[in-house]
Amino acid sequence: MADTASSGSTSREVSEKGWLVLKQYVIDNKIKAGLWFTRLLTMMFTISYVIPIFGNVYNIYYKALMSHAATSALRLHQRLPNVQFSREFLGMLLLEDSCHYLFYSIIFLYVPPVTIVLVPIFIFAMLHFFSFSLTLLDCLGHNSWWAMRLVISLVEFQSYNILRFCALSEIIILPFTVLLVFTGRVGLLTPIIYYQFLKMRLASQRNAFTRNMFHEIRGLLSTVSKKPAMPDILRKVIEGFLSLTQQMAPVPQ
């Protein structure tokens, strides 16, 4: 009995120490903790929009975009803390992925809800949320919350395929917004502005997935258009598309 009580007391002390370590880590890394929280909100709002259990789904959609905008703004502050009013700083700003996605959130805050728009922001929020969650779990102890660790491991194991899917969704949204113009759901400016966003994503220095996926799609379309069975009208449409997007395609990495 004494051994059992001693073991229970030791386990409780280890748990309390873990929570104190976690608390101190969060205090020392306020911006990272803030990013973790805003990403959690993005995930919750996206799931609530797709599976409408409570609240107004229309408002929830925009809350997902706003929470992602907050994440992007915080991340941008983390990457470029010293704001300067110069051309050099503007150039650095436009190279940041967080700036791209702040721009992305602003684009779709002013158009009616489109479900596919939430796909990239949910994926990025999920990947970064789980990555930082693992760090927080390590503060509690390397054997704590094993079920959560298993989920995180599965997500990280599939991160390559998940990021490829995210890149594909970024690209697909452009022609989708063009179709929405013809249905009257968005204005003509939306695909034009999104085109500029996609160009920034293709030139990203930190994330080559969109650029590589873009070249894969172009290569696939080029192969399909050269098949003898391809009707001339479709071949001309594909060749026109390839010619139109030629200037958008930086060298793949």
Automatic annotation (TrEMBL):
The chain crosses the membrane at residues 33-54, 171-197. Pfam families: TMEM33_Pom33. It comes from the Eukaryota. The keyword Metal-binding does not apply. This is Krueppel homolog 2. Keywords: Membrane, Transmembrane, Transmembrane helix. PANTHER family: TRANSMEMBRANE PROTEIN 33 (PTHR12703:SF4). Belongs to the PER33/POM33 family. The keyword Transmembrane helix applies.
